[in-house]
Amino acid sequence: MSVPSDPARRPGRLGVGVVGAGRVGAVLGSALRAAGHPVVGVSAVSQESRDRAEALLPGVPVLTVPEVVRRAELVVLAVPDDALADLVRGLADTGAWQAGQIVVHTSGRYGAGVLAPARSAGAIPLALHPAMTFTGTSLDLARLVGCPFAVTAPAAVLPIGQALVVEIGGEPTVLDEDARGLYHAALAHGANHLVVLVAQAAQALTAAGVADPGRMLAPLLEAALDGALRAESPGDGLTDVRPRGAGAIGALTGPVRRGDAGTLVEHLAVLDAFAAREGAPDVASSYRVLARAAEARALAAGLLAQDAAARVLDALTPDAQPAPDQQPDQQPDGQHGPGQSGTSQPSEVAGIDPGAGWLRQQSRHDDQDDDQHDEDGRAPRPDPQEDA
Question: What's the predicted TM-score (pTM) here?
Answer without folding.
Answer: 0.78
